[in-house]
Amino acid sequence: MSVFALPDLGEGLQEAELVAWHVGEGDHVVADQPLVSVETEKAVVEVPSPQDGKIARLCAEPGERVKVGGPLVEFEEGPRTDTGTIVGELSAPPPSALSPTPQTPAVRAAPAVRALAQRLGVDLATVAASGPGGAVTSADVERAARAQTESGPVEPLAGVRRAMAINMARSHAEIVPATVSDEADIEAWPPGSDITIRLVRAVVAGCAASPGLNAWYDGRTMERRLLKQIDLGLAVDTEDGLFVPVLRNVAVRDAADLRRGIEAMKRDLRARSVPVAELRGQTITLSNFGMFAGRFAALVIVPPQVAILGAGRITKRPVISDGQLAVHRILPLSLTFDHRAVTGGEAARFLKAAIEELERRE
Asked: Which segments within the chain are labelled E, that is strand?
Protein backbone atom coordinates (compact mmCIF):
# COMPACT_ATOMS: atom_id res chain seq x y z
CA MET A 1 0.00 0.00 0.00
CA SER A 2 1.04 3.60 -0.56
CA VAL A 3 -0.70 6.70 0.69
CA PHE A 4 -1.13 9.92 -1.26
CA ALA A 5 -1.40 12.96 1.03
CA LEU A 6 -2.97 16.34 0.32
CA PRO A 7 -0.19 18.22 -1.47
CA ASP A 8 1.08 21.68 -0.68
CA LEU A 9 -1.31 23.94 -2.62
CA GLY A 10 0.91 26.98 -2.24
CA GLU A 11 0.35 30.48 -0.82
CA GLY A 12 0.82 29.23 2.73
CA LEU A 13 -2.48 27.33 2.84
CA GLN A 14 -2.64 24.79 5.66
CA GLU A 15 -5.85 22.92 4.84
CA ALA A 16 -8.62 22.52 2.27
CA GLU A 17 -12.21 21.30 2.22
CA LEU A 18 -12.94 18.23 0.11
CA VAL A 19 -15.63 19.10 -2.46
CA ALA A 20 -16.05 15.98 -4.64
CA TRP A 21 -14.27 12.79 -5.60
CA HIS A 22 -13.76 12.08 -9.30
CA VAL A 23 -12.80 8.45 -8.67
CA GLY A 24 -14.02 5.61 -6.48
CA GLU A 25 -12.54 2.73 -4.52
CA GLY A 26 -11.42 -0.04 -6.86
CA ASP A 27 -10.89 2.33 -9.81
CA HIS A 28 -7.69 2.18 -11.83
CA VAL A 29 -6.18 5.62 -12.43
CA VAL A 30 -3.24 6.99 -14.36
CA ALA A 31 -0.76 9.65 -13.37
CA ASP A 32 -2.11 13.23 -13.60
CA GLN A 33 -5.74 12.04 -13.75
CA PRO A 34 -7.93 14.30 -11.55
CA LEU A 35 -8.65 12.52 -8.28
CA VAL A 36 -10.56 15.05 -6.23
CA SER A 37 -11.68 18.68 -6.11
CA VAL A 38 -10.84 20.61 -2.95
CA GLU A 39 -11.78 24.11 -1.91
CA THR A 40 -9.06 26.33 -0.52
CA GLU A 41 -9.83 29.67 1.06
CA LYS A 42 -11.41 31.02 -2.09
CA ALA A 43 -10.88 28.70 -5.04
CA VAL A 44 -11.75 25.16 -6.08
CA VAL A 45 -8.68 23.19 -7.14
CA GLU A 46 -8.40 19.77 -8.79
CA VAL A 47 -5.78 17.48 -7.27
CA PRO A 48 -4.23 15.04 -9.81
CA SER A 49 -3.01 11.52 -9.15
CA PRO A 50 0.76 11.25 -8.58
CA GLN A 51 0.93 7.76 -10.12
CA ASP A 52 -0.75 4.94 -11.99
CA GLY A 53 -2.51 2.42 -9.77
CA LYS A 54 -5.64 0.97 -8.25
CA ILE A 55 -7.39 2.90 -5.51
CA ALA A 56 -7.83 0.82 -2.36
CA ARG A 57 -9.43 3.45 -0.14
CA LEU A 58 -10.63 7.04 -0.15
CA CYS A 59 -9.51 8.58 3.13
CA ALA A 60 -11.96 11.49 3.42
CA GLU A 61 -15.56 12.35 2.65
CA PRO A 62 -16.92 15.41 0.82
CA GLY A 63 -17.31 18.24 3.28
CA GLU A 64 -14.38 17.17 5.45
CA ARG A 65 -11.44 19.51 5.98
CA VAL A 66 -8.07 17.91 5.29
CA LYS A 67 -4.75 19.29 6.52
CA VAL A 68 -1.84 19.60 4.09
CA GLY A 69 0.01 16.30 4.49
CA GLY A 70 -3.15 14.50 5.61
CA PRO A 71 -4.08 11.25 3.78
CA LEU A 72 -6.32 11.46 0.71
CA VAL A 73 -5.99 8.12 -1.13
CA GLU A 74 -4.51 4.69 -0.49
CA PHE A 75 -3.16 2.90 -3.57
CA GLU A 76 -2.85 -0.90 -3.75
CA GLU A 77 0.34 -0.60 -5.76
CA GLY A 78 3.52 1.00 -4.46
CA PRO A 79 4.49 4.53 -5.48
CA ARG A 80 5.52 5.08 -9.09
CA THR A 81 7.65 7.82 -10.60
CA ASP A 82 6.72 11.20 -9.15
CA THR A 83 5.11 13.46 -11.75
CA GLY A 84 5.97 16.67 -9.95
CA THR A 85 3.04 16.81 -7.54
CA ILE A 86 4.12 17.41 -3.97
CA VAL A 87 2.97 14.36 -2.02
CA GLY A 88 3.61 12.88 1.40
CA GLU A 89 4.29 9.25 2.30
CA LEU A 90 2.52 8.18 5.48
CA SER A 91 3.03 5.09 7.58
CA ALA A 92 1.27 4.00 10.74
CA PRO A 93 3.31 4.78 13.87
CA PRO A 94 4.01 2.02 16.35
CA PRO A 95 1.40 1.71 19.12
CA SER A 96 3.80 3.20 21.65
CA ALA A 97 4.06 6.38 19.58
CA LEU A 98 0.34 6.99 19.42
CA SER A 99 -0.92 9.90 21.49
CA PRO A 100 -3.51 8.97 24.07
CA THR A 101 -7.07 9.73 23.03
CA PRO A 102 -8.39 12.63 25.06
CA GLN A 103 -11.17 11.52 27.35
CA THR A 104 -14.48 13.37 27.20
CA PRO A 105 -15.82 14.10 30.66
CA ALA A 106 -18.77 11.79 31.47
CA VAL A 107 -22.21 13.38 31.39
CA ARG A 108 -24.31 12.66 34.47
CA ALA A 109 -27.85 11.73 33.47
CA ALA A 110 -30.37 9.10 34.49
CA PRO A 111 -31.23 6.35 31.95
CA ALA A 112 -34.65 7.91 31.35
CA VAL A 113 -33.02 11.27 30.61
CA ARG A 114 -30.59 9.61 28.20
CA ALA A 115 -33.47 7.91 26.40
CA LEU A 116 -35.33 11.24 26.15
CA ALA A 117 -32.23 12.93 24.70
CA GLN A 118 -31.83 10.18 22.11
CA ARG A 119 -35.49 10.42 21.11
CA LEU A 120 -35.30 14.23 20.74
CA GLY A 121 -31.92 14.20 18.97
CA VAL A 122 -30.14 16.16 21.69
CA ASP A 123 -26.43 15.68 22.38
CA LEU A 124 -26.14 15.48 26.16
CA ALA A 125 -22.61 16.85 26.04
CA THR A 126 -24.00 20.18 24.80
CA VAL A 127 -26.74 20.52 27.41
CA ALA A 128 -26.37 22.92 30.34
CA ALA A 129 -27.05 20.82 33.43
CA SER A 130 -29.17 22.14 36.29
CA GLY A 131 -29.62 19.00 38.38
CA PRO A 132 -27.95 18.06 41.65
CA GLY A 133 -24.23 17.52 41.32
CA GLY A 134 -24.23 18.71 37.70
CA ALA A 135 -26.68 16.08 36.45
CA VAL A 136 -28.69 16.70 33.29
CA THR A 137 -32.44 16.63 33.93
CA SER A 138 -35.39 15.97 31.63
CA ALA A 139 -36.21 19.68 31.74
CA ASP A 140 -32.67 20.49 30.58
CA VAL A 141 -33.04 18.14 27.61
CA GLU A 142 -36.46 19.50 26.66
CA ARG A 143 -35.16 23.07 26.86
CA ALA A 144 -32.21 22.18 24.61
CA ALA A 145 -34.56 20.47 22.13
CA ARG A 146 -36.78 23.56 21.96
CA ALA A 147 -33.72 25.75 21.36
CA GLN A 148 -32.62 23.47 18.50
CA THR A 149 -36.08 23.61 16.93
CA GLU A 150 -36.38 27.39 17.20
CA SER A 151 -32.88 28.21 16.01
CA GLY A 152 -32.52 25.57 13.30
CA PRO A 153 -29.58 23.24 12.76
CA VAL A 154 -26.00 24.28 13.39
CA GLU A 155 -24.26 25.21 10.14
CA PRO A 156 -20.47 25.02 10.33
CA LEU A 157 -18.78 27.72 8.30
CA ALA A 158 -16.86 26.32 5.36
CA GLY A 159 -14.98 27.48 2.30
CA VAL A 160 -15.27 31.19 1.56
CA ARG A 161 -17.34 32.03 4.64
CA ARG A 162 -14.85 30.25 6.89
CA ALA A 163 -11.98 32.20 5.30
CA MET A 164 -13.95 35.43 5.75
CA ALA A 165 -14.52 34.68 9.43
CA ILE A 166 -10.82 34.00 9.96
CA ASN A 167 -9.77 37.19 8.16
CA MET A 168 -12.31 39.34 10.02
CA ALA A 169 -11.17 37.97 13.38
CA ARG A 170 -7.56 38.65 12.42
CA SER A 171 -8.42 42.20 11.41
CA HIS A 172 -10.26 42.82 14.68
CA ALA A 173 -7.29 41.53 16.66
CA GLU A 174 -4.57 43.41 14.77
CA ILE A 175 -5.90 46.60 13.18
CA VAL A 176 -6.52 49.97 14.84
CA PRO A 177 -9.13 51.34 12.41
CA ALA A 178 -10.24 54.91 11.84
CA THR A 179 -12.64 56.14 9.17
CA VAL A 180 -12.92 59.46 7.36
CA SER A 181 -15.92 60.16 5.10
CA ASP A 182 -16.85 62.73 2.47
CA GLU A 183 -18.83 63.09 -0.77
CA ALA A 184 -18.01 63.61 -4.44
CA ASP A 185 -20.29 65.61 -6.73
CA ILE A 186 -20.38 63.51 -9.91
CA GLU A 187 -22.97 65.50 -11.82
CA ALA A 188 -20.34 66.28 -14.48
CA TRP A 189 -19.97 62.62 -15.46
CA PRO A 190 -21.06 61.97 -19.03
CA PRO A 191 -23.86 59.42 -19.57
CA GLY A 192 -22.71 55.80 -19.46
CA SER A 193 -19.66 56.44 -17.30
CA ASP A 194 -18.12 53.26 -15.89
CA ILE A 195 -18.45 53.72 -12.12
CA THR A 196 -15.97 51.00 -11.22
CA ILE A 197 -13.29 52.36 -13.56
CA ARG A 198 -13.81 55.86 -12.19
CA LEU A 199 -13.37 54.51 -8.66
CA VAL A 200 -10.20 52.65 -9.64
CA ARG A 201 -8.78 55.88 -11.05
CA ALA A 202 -9.75 57.64 -7.82
CA VAL A 203 -7.76 55.10 -5.80
CA VAL A 204 -4.76 55.64 -8.08
CA ALA A 205 -5.04 59.42 -7.61
CA GLY A 206 -5.31 58.98 -3.85
CA CYS A 207 -2.21 56.80 -3.72
CA ALA A 208 -0.28 59.33 -5.81
CA ALA A 209 -1.17 62.08 -3.35
CA SER A 210 -0.62 59.96 -0.27
CA PRO A 211 1.63 56.95 -1.00
CA GLY A 212 1.50 55.76 2.61
CA LEU A 213 -1.91 54.19 2.03
CA ASN A 214 -0.57 51.82 -0.63
CA ALA A 215 1.49 49.94 1.89
CA TRP A 216 1.82 46.87 4.12
CA TYR A 217 2.35 47.12 7.85
CA ASP A 218 3.80 44.47 10.17
CA GLY A 219 2.53 45.10 13.68
CA ARG A 220 4.96 42.64 15.25
CA THR A 221 8.05 44.44 14.01
CA MET A 222 6.38 47.87 13.65
CA GLU A 223 7.70 48.14 10.10
CA ARG A 224 5.90 49.75 7.16
CA ARG A 225 6.63 48.92 3.55
CA LEU A 226 5.54 51.45 0.91
CA LEU A 227 4.65 49.72 -2.35
CA LYS A 228 5.22 51.25 -5.77
CA GLN A 229 2.80 49.02 -7.68
CA ILE A 230 -0.90 49.34 -6.89
CA ASP A 231 -2.47 45.88 -6.81
CA LEU A 232 -6.10 46.70 -6.10
CA GLY A 233 -8.35 44.25 -4.31
CA LEU A 234 -11.98 44.45 -5.47
CA ALA A 235 -14.45 43.27 -2.82
CA VAL A 236 -17.11 41.13 -4.53
CA ASP A 237 -20.15 39.84 -2.62
CA THR A 238 -21.50 36.42 -3.64
CA GLU A 239 -23.92 33.88 -2.18
CA ASP A 240 -20.90 31.85 -1.08
CA GLY A 241 -19.31 34.77 0.76
CA LEU A 242 -16.89 37.61 0.14
CA PHE A 243 -14.22 37.34 -2.55
CA VAL A 244 -11.45 39.92 -3.01
CA PRO A 245 -9.69 39.19 -6.32
CA VAL A 246 -6.82 41.44 -7.37
CA LEU A 247 -6.47 43.82 -10.31
CA ARG A 248 -2.72 44.07 -10.81
CA ASN A 249 -0.77 47.25 -11.49
CA VAL A 250 -3.87 49.41 -12.01
CA ALA A 251 -1.96 52.69 -12.23
CA VAL A 252 -0.52 51.91 -15.68
CA ARG A 253 -3.58 50.27 -17.29
CA ASP A 254 -6.08 52.13 -19.46
CA ALA A 255 -9.85 51.93 -19.01
CA ALA A 256 -10.36 49.25 -21.66
CA ASP A 257 -7.68 47.01 -20.16
CA LEU A 258 -9.09 47.45 -16.66
CA ARG A 259 -12.59 46.58 -17.87
CA ARG A 260 -11.29 43.41 -19.55
CA GLY A 261 -9.57 42.46 -16.31
CA ILE A 262 -12.76 43.03 -14.30
CA GLU A 263 -14.85 40.94 -16.71
CA ALA A 264 -12.29 38.13 -16.55
CA MET A 265 -12.54 38.27 -12.76
CA LYS A 266 -16.31 37.95 -12.92
CA ARG A 267 -16.10 34.92 -15.20
CA ASP A 268 -13.58 33.24 -12.92
CA LEU A 269 -15.73 33.95 -9.86
CA ARG A 270 -18.84 32.49 -11.50
CA ALA A 271 -16.88 29.37 -12.41
CA ARG A 272 -15.12 29.30 -9.01
CA SER A 273 -11.85 29.02 -10.89
CA VAL A 274 -9.95 32.03 -9.58
CA PRO A 275 -6.29 31.05 -9.13
CA VAL A 276 -5.26 31.27 -5.48
CA ALA A 277 -2.44 33.64 -6.46
CA GLU A 278 -5.04 36.12 -7.77
CA LEU A 279 -6.68 36.28 -4.34
CA ARG A 280 -3.49 37.33 -2.56
CA GLY A 281 -1.19 40.31 -2.52
CA GLN A 282 -3.67 43.21 -2.45
CA THR A 283 -1.94 46.47 -1.58
CA ILE A 284 -5.19 48.44 -1.06
CA THR A 285 -8.86 47.47 -1.44
CA LEU A 286 -11.96 49.02 -3.03
CA SER A 287 -15.51 48.17 -1.94
CA ASN A 288 -18.42 49.45 -4.02
CA PHE A 289 -21.02 48.49 -1.43
CA GLY A 290 -23.36 51.25 -2.58
CA MET A 291 -24.53 49.12 -5.49
CA PHE A 292 -26.66 47.33 -2.86
CA ALA A 293 -27.39 49.95 -0.17
CA GLY A 294 -25.79 52.28 2.32
CA ARG A 295 -24.15 55.69 2.19
CA PHE A 296 -21.21 55.48 4.57
CA ALA A 297 -19.47 52.56 6.27
CA ALA A 298 -16.69 51.70 8.70
CA LEU A 299 -15.02 49.06 6.54
CA VAL A 300 -12.72 46.22 7.56
CA ILE A 301 -9.05 46.15 6.58
CA VAL A 302 -7.34 42.80 6.08
CA PRO A 303 -3.71 42.97 7.19
CA PRO A 304 -1.05 43.61 6.09
CA GLN A 305 -2.96 46.26 4.10
CA VAL A 306 -3.50 49.63 5.74
CA ALA A 307 -6.48 51.08 3.85
CA ILE A 308 -9.78 50.34 2.12
CA LEU A 309 -11.93 52.81 0.17
CA GLY A 310 -15.69 52.29 0.13
CA ALA A 311 -18.21 53.85 -2.26
CA GLY A 312 -21.79 54.24 -1.05
CA ARG A 313 -25.08 54.51 -2.89
CA ILE A 314 -25.28 57.36 -5.41
CA THR A 315 -28.23 59.67 -4.72
CA LYS A 316 -29.58 62.95 -6.09
CA ARG A 317 -29.23 65.75 -3.57
CA PRO A 318 -29.89 69.51 -3.53
CA VAL A 319 -26.65 71.53 -3.76
CA ILE A 320 -25.62 75.11 -4.35
CA SER A 321 -23.91 75.30 -7.76
CA ASP A 322 -22.69 78.64 -9.15
CA GLY A 323 -24.84 80.39 -6.57
CA GLN A 324 -27.99 78.55 -7.64
CA LEU A 325 -29.92 75.71 -6.06
CA ALA A 326 -29.58 72.57 -8.15
CA VAL A 327 -29.98 68.80 -7.87
CA HIS A 328 -26.79 66.82 -8.45
CA ARG A 329 -25.69 63.20 -8.23
CA ILE A 330 -23.64 62.68 -5.08
CA LEU A 331 -21.32 59.76 -4.37
CA PRO A 332 -20.55 59.09 -0.67
CA LEU A 333 -17.05 57.85 0.15
CA SER A 334 -15.65 56.17 3.26
CA LEU A 335 -11.93 55.64 3.77
CA THR A 336 -10.96 53.30 6.60
CA PHE A 337 -7.27 53.22 7.48
CA ASP A 338 -5.01 51.54 10.02
CA HIS A 339 -4.12 54.37 12.40
CA ARG A 340 -0.97 52.54 13.53
CA ALA A 341 0.62 53.14 10.14
CA VAL A 342 -1.39 56.00 8.59
CA THR A 343 -1.93 59.48 10.00
CA GLY A 344 -5.20 61.35 9.78
CA GLY A 345 -3.53 63.90 7.49
CA GLU A 346 -2.36 61.21 5.09
CA ALA A 347 -5.87 59.74 4.96
CA ALA A 348 -7.44 63.16 4.38
CA ARG A 349 -5.02 63.94 1.54
CA PHE A 350 -5.81 60.59 -0.08
CA LEU A 351 -9.55 61.24 0.13
CA LYS A 352 -9.21 64.80 -1.19
CA ALA A 353 -7.28 63.60 -4.25
CA ALA A 354 -9.77 60.77 -4.85
CA ILE A 355 -12.68 63.24 -4.75
CA GLU A 356 -10.96 65.63 -7.13
CA GLU A 357 -10.41 62.77 -9.58
CA LEU A 358 -14.04 61.68 -9.31
CA GLU A 359 -15.37 65.19 -9.86
CA ARG A 360 -13.54 65.62 -13.16
CA ARG A 361 -15.78 65.35 -16.20
CA GLU A 362 -13.49 62.86 -17.99
From this structure: 2-5, 15-21, 28-29, 34-39, 44-48, 53-58, 65-67, 71-75, 177-185, 215-218, 223-226, 232-234, 236-238, 241-243, 246-247, 284-287, 307-311, 315-321, 324-338
